[in-house]
């Protein structure tokens, strides 16, 4: 009801979430991609919306469906498309949580025709994609909360703190890959949240919707 909605803590707040993989075209039938399912980002979008926020979800290719009809979903394919959609939605956004597993490199040239197996060897020249999170970090105005993820296999905390600072984030969510059942293609996730003061909070392995609630609780703490 209207009365109930009034009491939700993120009512009147605008939120932006990126989720899923990106696909970088090689030719008309092939791409470079990754195994991200989009589950973590979709769960965060649903949680922010349940807390009353007006949510835009920018999603790379994903089989997932949203149960919340209030979420504005924008489907994109490549890192470049995700950057454009993110930049155009960022002004006026109070909370941005970037979960997408964006490809770090894309083919330098996209072949207009299907590449034939003419030769015994084949090389692909790759160039770096734009860092969407770092770009929003540069654009960020006072009062805007920006959250990113980090997937590390070594020097996890130190590397995550580097990303937090370099990309001008309010906090970073470190995904544990070493622990059984972490991150990709999984229903569960084990995270550590690191904020600007380098305060660390580690959580148990739990379902992604509960992880989403932990992340959103940290956002509520920051909002005061
Ligand atoms: N990210 C992004 N755009 C990119 C690459 C990453 O927005 N082109 C975001 C991800 O959504 C995530 C964060 O940056 O929130 C960290 O991603 P990660 O792959 O861990 O770090 P990178 O900065 O890409 O560095 P590396 O892969 O070399 O560790
Ligand atoms: Ca990366």
UniProtKB/TrEMBL annotation:
Pathway connected to this protein: Cofactor biosynthesis; coenzyme A biosynthesis; CoA from (R)-pantothenate: step 2/5; Cofactor biosynthesis; coenzyme A biosynthesis; CoA from (R)-pantothenate: step 3/5
Cofactor(s) demanded: Mg(2+); FMN
EC number per UniProt: 4.1.1.36, 6.3.2.5
Domain DNA/pantothenate metabolism flavoprotein C-terminal: 10-221
Record's GO cellular component terms: phosphopantothenoylcysteine decarboxylase complex
Binding of CTP, residues: 104, 114, 149, 163, 167
GO MF annotation terms: FMN binding; metal ion binding; phosphopantothenate--cysteine ligase activity; phosphopantothenoylcysteine decarboxylase activity
Cofactor note (record): Binds 1 FMN per subunit.
Keywords attached to this entry: Decarboxylase, Flavoprotein, FMN, Ligase, Lyase, Magnesium, Metal-binding, Multifunctional enzyme
Catalytic activity entry: N-[(R)-4-phosphopantothenoyl]-L-cysteine + H(+) = (R)-4'-phosphopantetheine + CO2; (R)-4'-phosphopantothenate + L-cysteine + CTP = N-[(R)-4-phosphopantothenoyl]-L-cysteine + CMP + diphosphate + H(+)
Region annotation Phosphopantothenate--cysteine ligase: where it falls in the sequence: 15-224
Entry function: Catalyzes two sequential steps in the biosynthesis of coenzyme A. In the first step cysteine is conjugated to 4'-phosphopantothenate to form 4-phosphopantothenoylcysteine. In the second step the latter compound is decarboxylated to form 4'-phosphopantotheine.
Protein name, as recorded: Coenzyme A biosynthesis bifunctional protein CoaBC
Native organism: Daejeonella rubra
